[in-house]
């Protein structure tokens, strides 16, 4: 086990380059199972979730060659249609994409119940609904999900709740189905669009990703090709919030500024300075105490739930009283108890947290409860007086590539230490 030891108080200043999007990559890797050919995937984030996925795909007969830390060549011509290893698929949430991909490729998928960060109940009923609408039989039990079909037939899917995972899984299961599929009440996140763009590059016929209705015309086969993962909207937003929390000045490169609009709007409301230098570079700086705001997390293009905890760090030392309503997850405020150890004044009532801004945070020993909470606590440690230890940083390694290196390049005093 390892921890981060951080000595504050630092104003982060300089440039940071954003990596490929974790939540696109963990869908595009399994999506290669739908391709009978060779795919080169570039701008892949070098994080533990990706490494686990590559190991799982290898057990299914996929040949994977890593040509550099952020590029893999994936040969799916010899996929063996066997069960995915239950103990490996239970390690993280995104293993559920194997179901849609293996259904499409093999007509059968057996996957361990997905694990992942503890954010409250994380049902997969909408995934099952999508698969059944396409003619599959889905059984959930004994810690695994089994989906089988003689052949998938295009159909109409209306998701009861906006779900990133169910939207992507429905797309995966439909691209090789007979006929046309429509999916409504879909998620519009940038990573959903990226998965559709990847599949279309390989010969799929998907229309409307990023809008309210997605239409997929099934095709016979997908061919290989080369694809570069979209920049990570959430990593970019994390660094924007780090600039404001530490009263610093950060230029964020290799991002898509349009994807950051929900956050930029809120930061401007708080009095932070934002300059879009180009479509892929944004500068954020803040010299004085931010004003208080109210935040409500919503599906894209609303305020992202994955930026809720880093925003909580900013609100902890903003003027006045702020509020965050978490509408996506049942339990995503565990980090506030850790911030209160650092001198914050946060009161959680159900799915709403109230922040009474304080002048300063103070170093303490804190623990990450999910990857975004972990990044938030690191930012808090950099903005605090004194020394902070952040434990359970394996969560952070799941979704942030070289976080401590990128922060050190911005002036942070942060070390990774063995527990
Ligand atoms: C994805 O999770 C992301 N993970 C999460 O990011 C992110 O917080 C979430 O989308 C929302 O944006 C990956 O992409 C791997 P959902 P996912 O299905 O797909 C309910 C991170 O930090 N729901 O969009 O699991 C669900 O309970 C991670 O990178 C059902 O009711 O989320 C939740 O309330 C954490 N039934 C809401 O929908 C279902 O079948 C949204 O969940 C599926 C979901």
Query: What structural class should be given to the helix and strand makeup?
Result: alpha+beta
The CATH superfamily label of the largest domain reads Enolpyruvate transferase domain
CATH architecture classification name of the largest domain? Alpha-beta prism
Tally of DSSP β-strands:
23
- Sheet having the most strands: 4 strands, mixed
Mean pLDDT: 96
DSSP summary: helix tally: 14
Counted up, domains total: 2
The level of helicity is 25-40%
Q: Shape from CA axes?
A: globular
CATH fold node name of the largest domain: UDP-n-acetylglucosamine1-carboxyvinyl-transferase, Chain
Hetero groups bound? ligand EPZ
Q: Would you identify the regions where 5 or more consecutive residues have pLDDT less than 50?
A: none
Q: What is the rounded Rg?
A: 21 Å
Strand percent estimate: 25-35%
End-to-end separation in angstroms reads 6 Å
Question: What can you tell me about this protein's structure?
Answer:
- The protein is of the alpha+beta class and 419 residues long.
- The protein folds into two domains: 2-19 and 231-418, Enolpyruvate transferase domain (UDP-n-acetylglucosamine1-carboxyvinyl-transferase, Chain), CATH 3.65.10; 22-228, Alpha-beta prism (UDP-n-acetylglucosamine1-carboxyvinyl-transferase, Chain).
- Helices cover 32% and strands 26% of the residues.
- The chain contains 14 helices and 23 strands.
- The protein has helices spanning 22-31, 48-59, 86-89, 97-106, 125-133, 164-174, 190-201, 233-245, 261-269, 308-316, 334-341, 371-383, 394-399, 403-408, and strands at 2-8, 13-17, 38-42, 63-68, 71-75, 108-112, 137-141, 144-148, 156-158, 180-184, 206-207, 213-217, 225-228, 249-253, 273-278, 281-285, 294-296, 321-325, 346-349, 352-356, 365-367, 386-391, 413-418.
- A four-stranded mixed sheet has the order 21-22-1-23. It has a four-stranded mixed sheet with strand order 2-14-16-15, with helices on one face.
- Strand 21, helix 12 and strand 22 (386-391) form a beta-alpha-beta unit.
- Helix 10 runs parallel beside helix 12 (371-383).
- The chain starts with a strand and ends with a strand.
- The structure holds ligand EPZ.
- Ligand EPZ is lined by residues 22-23, 26, 93-94, 117, 121-127, 161, 163-166, 187, 305-306, 328-329, 371-372, 399.
- Residues 22-23, 26, 93-94, 117, 121-127, 161, 163-166, 187, 305-306, 328-329, 371-372, 399 line the site of ligand EPZ.
